[in-house]
Amino acid sequence: MDDLYREVILDHYKNPRGHGVIDDADASAEGMNPLCGDEVAIYVAFAEDGETIEEVKFSGRGCAISQAATSMLTEMVQGRSAGEVGELSKEELLEEVGIPNMSPIRIKCALLGLGVLKVALHRAKGTPLPTEWAGLDEEFRVR
Amino acid sequence: MSEGGYDWLMAVPAELKLDPRTLRADFPILAQEINGKPLAYLDSAVTAQKPRQMLEAMTHFYETSYANVHRGVYSLAERATEAFEGAREKVARLVNAPSSRALIFTRNATESLNLVAYAWGLTNLGRGDVVVVTELEHHSNFVPWQYVAKRTGAEFRMIPLTDGGELDLEALEAIARDGDVKVVATNLVSNALGTINPVERLSAWAHDHGAIMVVDAAQGAPHRVIDVQALGCDFLAFSAHKLCGPSGVGALWGRRELLEAMEPFNLGGHMIKKVQFEQTTWGDLPHKFEAGTSPIAEAVGFGAAVDYITGVGLEAIEQHEHDLVSYALERLADVPGIVIYGPPPERRAGIVSFNMDGVHPHDVAQVLDWEGVAIRAGHHCCQPLMQRLGVAATNRASFYLYTLPEEIDRLAEGLLRVRKVFG
Question: First CA to last CA across chain A, in angstroms?
Fold first, then answer.
């Protein structure tokens, strides 16, 4: 059970990577998990090609899982293309987070950052959210 | 409100004791392990566990006496009606209602409060009127009033809190200057902080201003003696599931003349006197507010739950929880980095809301679950209060008649483990 708070999660929670704000971000969104009040805001700056994620930062407050997963996410998406990250699957992030048998409630915590990032990217590109994420902006009250 | 708080004291004779260890034998669910540890259920404020006696009463009713009520002429239907109305008598007596006809069965306290907000509020509120709630309210006694105030153009005001988590009654006079106060709505006991609110004083103030007093007793009725006549309120709402009864049934007591003058809430079968193409007339109390088939067996279970808690004794329950909460406040004060919200034990029911410095409540509750300790983490349906406290969420441990002091020890030890995990 201690898997939930294994060293790497606690490390990301206590020392979040990519913590901060990008002024004049090319894409940004913020959302919350109304169940527990976890909040995440994500900011993305594209490279000159307008597609590669050059920089990604986040701010927020919430449980260790939501904040650590978002921190890990920023490392995962750095340098990848907006299109690719827009299609990034839940499983890929959950695998990276690496917690087996997470309860549905905690999975939601883990996916908050990815959901907010997806909304930010699809909004910036004017593309619709992939079907499995449809309705997400409402669920996470993304602004 | 000054440091001393409200000038009322609980007169609880010391000999009124209950033995939680004996009572636990009535609650089969408590005799289990969670994650290899005995379950310590410290979340009774959200819902209470069920004694065998109540479960058996419902089963017995289903097996011997079930039929729809107030309908059939056959014997079984009469027997069902008798059990159902008998339950109403018991629930009415629990709150010392002058007449059981003014005791309406609803789905839960939330529906009871919606009933008042819609059926009384939509007709009686308008521009220039003021609806007063508190910063301590559960959403169930907040959102309906906010909504009805908006619909009718009435002003919506909150009685603010002191830093100690108690109502600041000094703010009342300023609120009264904002218009014609028509409704004062408060809980008797805060589900989030455990604060016991001075309902008698608020009732007197409300009546001085010609307002009605609406009390959410969802968190009060399970834990202390309730007397609607002594409280001086006009409406009182509570749920069965928090007082050892089943979910799906609650109650609204209201002053008879108010209920009689009110428009109906739900419309349909059973609540009518006469239905014609041109118009329909409403049935007498309580039927006017009980459209459709009621939660019949649940009401019978409600009655059995009332028998159970009154058998244990509400004074004894209150004393037991007072002892537990005093102990919990002591134990938690020993855990580094704990912030406790709410009033001192004298004015607090069996609820402790707290945060641990640097650790989100969800993470606290998760680690405690490994220890078999079940507490609530979240906003407790009190987002205005969370805003007032400046937090997104809190941890909440809450107690009932079956709670043991050693479960509070396990909570405190579990919190030390949380500290260890999060360093």
Answer: 35
Q: Are B29 and B49 in contact (CB under 8 A)?
A: yes
A65·B370 Cβ contact <8 A: no
Strand partners, B354: B340, B395
Q: Min CA distance, A50 vs chain B (Å)?
A: 36
Q: Is B311 exposed, middle or buried (0-12, 13-18, 19+ CB in 10 A)?
A: exposed
**d(C-alpha A70, C-alpha A86), whole Å:** 15
Alpha-carbon distance of B377 to B395, in angstroms, equals 4
pLDDT tens for each residue of B205-242: 999 999 999 999 999 999 999 999 999 999 999 999 99
> Each residue of B212-221: b (16+ CB within 10 Å) or e?
bbbbbbbbbb
Q: For residues B287 and B100, is the Cβ–Cβ distance under 8 A?
A: no
Rounded distance, CA B284 to CA B100, Å?
A: 13
Question: Which chain B residues are within 8 Å of A61, Cβ to Cβ?
Answer: 360, 392
For residues B285 and B101, the answer to whether their CB atoms sit within 8 Å is yes
Inter-residue contact B197 to B136 (CB < 8 Å): yes
Q: What is the ipTM of this complex?
A: 0.83
B277, burial (CB in 10 Å: exposed 0-12, middle 13-18, buried 19+): exposed
Cα–Cα–Cα angle for B322, B239, B204, rounded to 5 degrees: 70
Write A21-27 long-range contacts (CB < 8 A, 24+).
A21/A57, A21/A59, A22/A55, A22/A56, A22/A57, A26/A50, A26/A124, A27/A82, A27/A120, A27/A121, A27/A123, A27/A124, A27/A125
Mean pLDDT, residues A116-133 = 88
Structure confidence at residue A34 as a pLDDT band (50, 70, 90): confident
Terminal CA-to-CA distance of chain B, rounded, Å?
38
Query: Is A1 within 8 Å of B370 when comparing Cβ atoms?
Result: yes
Dump pLDDT digits (tens) for B67-102.
999 888 899 999 999 999 999 999 999 999 999 999
